[in-house]
Amino acid sequence: MKLLIILTALSLTSLNSTSAHPKAPQTCNSPECQLQSKSLLSKIDTSASPCDDFYQFACGNYKDIGSPMIDQATNIDRWILKLATDPLRKHDGKLVKLIKIFYMSCLNNRGSLNDFIEDGTSMRRKVGTDGDYENFEEAIQELQFSQNSDAYIFSMRMEFVDEQALLVVDQPKFETKAGFVDRKNDKVQEFNRNFINYLVEEGFDQKEVEDMQVKAFKFENKLLELIDESSSEAKIEVIKISELQEVFNFINWTNFIENFFNGSEKIDETFVLGVKNRAAMMKIDNFLLTRSDDDVLDYLLWRYIEALYISLFYKHDDEESAEKLYFDSVNPNCNRKAVCTSCICKLKKELDVAVAAVYSKHSLTQTDRQEVTNMIIAMKSQLQDTFKTLDWLDSKTRAAVSVKLSKMKFFVGYPDLLVNEQFLSEYYRDLHVSKHSLVQNIDQIARLKNKNQRKFLTSPKVNKEVLFTIMTAQYIITPNALYTYHFNYFLICAGLIHSNTFSTDRPQAMNFGATGYAIGHEIFHGFDNQGRLYDENGSARNWWEKGTEKKFLEKSKCFVDQYGSYVEPTTGMRINGAKNLGENIADNGGLMLAYNTFQKVQEFDPILPNANFTSNQLFWLSMAQFYCSNKSYEGMKHQIECDPHTPGRFRVFGTLGNLEEFSDDFQCPAGSKMNRIDKCKIW
């Protein structure tokens, strides 16, 4: 059902008016509504009471392994696979050709490490202690950032901070944490044996590689002990390179940054960059200062060779390959980055902008984009009205939140720039890939990305939308949404706008309960415990009056205590209400905002056939079924330990239990499990 909104405050108000003789809601009997009804009813557990456990009621009969969102991610991968495996045609555009040729290079890959490391009898001959680098920093640059991999003794990436593009130095990220610790793990041992055997087959000396492996294990174990795993919310400090030299003295940062710019920029002590997790970085620096340059380079060389080996899998898409099982079985590290063992994963990672651009052009209609845009505009207008009613806000802070919301920019599906032919042509102008060499392709793409980063870092005025487009491309092909503090932008990804969450041919109650909830969630990240510390331009600044800030913190503590009281039944683990605070604030505020906005249009909304639910009840069910899932013990344990999001059951249980409107719509008595007496609310 199309959203009938005239975008003025007056007409939004008029939509909420009711006649003296309200009409009974119409039933939608279209094929799409029939399918939606069947899907919704198939998940519901009618033996459960919606007032005792609404998650069980909404999702109790959901039997699939995974979740609807995982199913959508799989559907996206299938679409990309079909595109990538379609034969090359003369009329294919450059992006499609890049995608197809890169994928062929992955499937056809039979490369040898000796193609990349000359004189394989000694791993140190080409790189490492026998390398021909001009300085130690050049060697680190080559070994850490080759193959588009993340760093191993520190990480460095571009971020947008205080209206400027900056290089940000941070603690390292690893694919695994316990892979080198739990050496008794069968899968770990199998992977390590395969790796050593492969190197020996390639002509490397067995004793040398075994010795290097043992040293690498010990070296990385120490690094892992020093990493701060609670660092996801750490702020970026903007400092001069001279100060960074004091924090992380192990290398000469002037040499390193000049190498990064390929000598095109002269770096002096006033050069500004960012640092994150300063305390952990200083601990890592102290450790590295106790090791020789040769020890560090040998460790980096080992990791470099390992990255090449992963890129040279023969069984790229074999889900049961030893390497895949290894990465799945080791104890997860909350600071880890994802490991790509399949060609589809490599394609999405390396050619993220190209894949996102092609997918975006074909996945969304302009009608769908406009309908979601209408929802967002209506929700922003509704929130402005809500801000006026909050008695705990002082006038100055109220004006500030209003300005921030007004300036909050949004993108539906994708930024328009992503499908701009001129932008895409310029971005990939210098990239040429070959079907014969996966690793060389990855190397060329890494160099291209670094070159494009350097353009931003040396530009006196950064085009925020261009930077945002590049930085978010990898997310567009996921069923997700995101808000960025430093931009004050949010994106509803193309991968999220699909039949499980949005359709113009189903009741708006369902669209607002799913997509509208996601929209509200992202908007409120601008006003959660972290987002509130950034202003309307995305600059880190505390613009809160002290008394109002104190009230915000008091209200936040209610959420910390509420969610911290929940115990997940599969693992017996308690939810960390402090770690998940930002997401829980966004859930509660976002869902209430979606509901209030829906009330402005619900008079025109039909109901589903064969489902004895009102429009308002369909809203709540659509939100809850967003989180239907069946996770393994290990998957749930990892989420509780590492993910800032509360498990789905408690996102439903906690959020709906705080909302009086839910209890009214399902007639839940006060004090029932889904109608908490002590409700938490900020916005």
Automatic annotation (TrEMBL):
<keyword id="KW-0479">Metal-binding</keyword>
<keyword id="KW-0862">Zinc</keyword>
<keyword id="KW-0482">Metalloprotease</keyword>
<dbReference type="InterPro" id="IPR000718">
    <property type="entry name" value="Peptidase_M13"/>
</dbReference>
<dbReference type="InterPro" id="IPR042089">
    <property type="entry name" value="Peptidase_M13_dom_2"/>
</dbReference>
<dbReference type="GO" id="GO:0046872">
    <property type="term" value="F:metal ion binding"/>
</dbReference>
<keyword id="KW-0378">Hydrolase</keyword>
<dbReference type="Pfam" id="PF05649">
    <property type="entry name" value="Peptidase_M13_N"/>
</dbReference>
<dbReference type="InterPro" id="IPR008753">
    <property type="entry name" value="Peptidase_M13_N"/>
</dbReference>
<dbReference type="Pfam" id="PF01431">
    <property type="entry name" value="Peptidase_M13"/>
</dbReference>
<feature type="domain" description="Peptidase M13 C-terminal">
    <location>
        <begin position="480"/>
        <end position="682"/>
    </location>
</feature>
<keyword id="KW-0732">Signal</keyword>
<dbReference type="InterPro" id="IPR024079">
    <property type="entry name" value="MetalloPept_cat_dom_sf"/>
</dbReference>
<dbReference type="GO" id="GO:0005886">
    <property type="term" value="C:plasma membrane"/>
</dbReference>
<keyword id="KW-0645">Protease</keyword>
<dbReference type="InterPro" id="IPR018497">
    <property type="entry name" value="Peptidase_M13_C"/>
</dbReference>
<dbReference type="GO" id="GO:0016485">
    <property type="term" value="P:protein processing"/>
</dbReference>
<dbReference type="GO" id="GO:0004222">
    <property type="term" value="F:metalloendopeptidase activity"/>
</dbReference>
<protein>
    <submittedName>
        <fullName>Uncharacterized protein</fullName>
    </submittedName>
</protein>
<comment type="similarity">
    <text>Belongs to the peptidase M13 family.</text>
</comment>
<feature type="domain" description="Peptidase M13 N-terminal">
    <location>
        <begin position="50"/>
        <end position="415"/>
    </location>
</feature>
<feature type="signal peptide">
    <location>
        <begin position="1"/>
        <end position="20"/>
    </location>
</feature>
